[in-house]
Write a structure and sequence with these properties.
Elements lengths: L1 H8 L2 H4 L2 H19 L4 H16 L15 H10 L3 H12 L3 H5 L4 H6 L2 H12 L4 H8 L6 H11 L4 H13 L1 H12 L2 H4 L11 H18 L4 H16 L3 H25 L3 H4 L2 H28 L21 H13 L6 H26 L2
Helix pairs in contact: 3-4, 4-12, 4-17, 5-17, 6-11, 6-16, 6-17, 9-10, 9-19, 10-11, 10-21, 11-12, 11-21, 12-19, 13-19, 13-20, 15-16, 16-17, 16-21, 20-21
Length: 375
């Protein structure tokens, strides 16, 4: 009987707590949202499954979790804690991204920049709640709605908050179709939602090839900390636009980004072990992240309305919401809300300009925060 009781003491039944059960339920909810609602399934499904695995692997004396040095999950999680996976994802994003709309109407880059206001206002809020400057910077970046950037910055500034920040960032990315439309309708009038924008001009191949090189040089000089993320993003885009490395571009935007997304999502989910994840700080981070995302959305919309005071060709303010870098979901939401007002108004291509500008903007913001807040 002593052997039986010793065996039972080493099973998951004896070591799983209420907190672990709660996180397993949350993991199941993530999987349900991915399958039933189709909310960012490429992210939520591996994160949800990872949360289940991470909260079952709680057995004293056995190296099973991402926090147990020597375990397999520990070494897979190394790519998260050391910021290895995010730049690889940026390489794939660059190989998938077409900057033509942004190049045809460069002033729209200002909308991507305006949306980053959520990052810095949330930083101030986090400082007021007692977080350290480094922690506040890592939390604020959630407002960029860019999971890889949030993971990269938190791995540099606040590794102990990485799990909560990553889950918050990816959760809000997945909930873009739920969070953004009410804010967009609240801050725009019916007439503003009816604005039709001019067709983008044709962009030459020379412009497309020079853009990634020039952007990298400018961004790295302004914010050296953005070099890694922007560098990989622009390398991927150059592979795509050069026309001579199609094999490499295709690999970056398909096989490689898929593999890294699986590893990143699963490891982030596995890091939500209740014993380390369920803390008062995590709850505050989720609240601040929601505020950051809402402020970023509002910032892009309001700046588009401000620009309309000065420009001849009016901008539909809905595309300002796409200034957050949840590519391409926030651009699709702008299209969806715009078509509610006018079924024949197609805003998707226009919204992609601030959307991709937001990717660059969040990477620059992360570089600035890393430069100023690293200890």
């Amino acid at each position: 009987m002593e052997t039986v009781f010793e065996f039972l003491g080493q099973t998951g039944f004896a070591n799983v707590t209420f907190g672990n059960i709660l996180m397993i339920v949350i993991g199941c909810i993530f999987i349900g949202l991915a399958i039933i609602k189709d909310y960012e399934p490429l992210l939520l499904l591996p994160i949800g499954f990872g949360a289940i695995v991470g909260n079952l692997a709680v057995v004293p004396g056995m190296s099973l979790s991402v926090y147990d040095e020597g375990s397999v999950l520990y070494y897979l999680y190394f790519g998260v804690t050391q910021g290895i996976y995010p730049p690889l994802i940026f390489l794939g994003i660059g190989a998938m991204t077409d900057f033509s709309t942004l190049l045809s109407n460069p002033k729209l880059i200002l909308l991507g920049a305006a949306a980053q206001v959520g990052i810095f206002l949330t930083l101030i809020g986090a400082l007021a709640l007692g977080f350290t400057p480094a922690e506040a910077g890592a939390i604020g970046i959630i407002g960029g709605a860019d999971g890889p950037t949030a993971i990269f910055l938190s791995s540099k500034l606040a590794p102990h908050l990485l799990g909560a920040i990553a889950i918050a960032a990816y959760s809000y990315m997945a909930l873009v179709p739920v969070i953004q439309p009410p804010i967009m309708r609240l801050l725009t009038t019916k007439n503003e939602r009816l604005i039709r924008m001019k067709e983008p001009r044709q962009v030459t191949k020379t412009e497309k090839v020079l853009f990634p090189i020039g952007t990298l040089v400018i961004c790295a000089l302004i914010a050296p900390g953005s070099l890694i993320l922007v560098g990989m993003l622009m390398l991927g885009n150059l592979l795509k636009e050069s026309g001579v490395t199609e094999r490499l571009a295709n690999t970056a935007r398909t096989s490689m980004i898929d593999i890294v997304t699986i590893l990143l999502g699963f490891c982030v989910g596995a890091s939500t072990q209740a014993q380390t994840f369920l803390t008062p700080q995590s709850i505050l981070i989720f609240g601040l992240g929601a505020a950051s995302f809402a402020i970023a959305t509002a910032g892009g919309i309001l700046f588009a309305k401000f620009m309309n005071l000065f420009v001849k060709d009016k901008i539909n303010p809905l595309i300002g919401a796409a200034g957050v870098s949840a590519v391409p979901d926030s651009a699709r939401v702008a299209q969806m809300v715009g078509r509610e007002a006018d079924p024949n108004n197609f805003l998707l291509m226009h919204a992609m300009a601030p959307n991709v500008a937001g990717v660059i903007g969040s990477a620059i913001a992360a570089g600035v925060l890393w430069s100023f807040l690293v200890t």
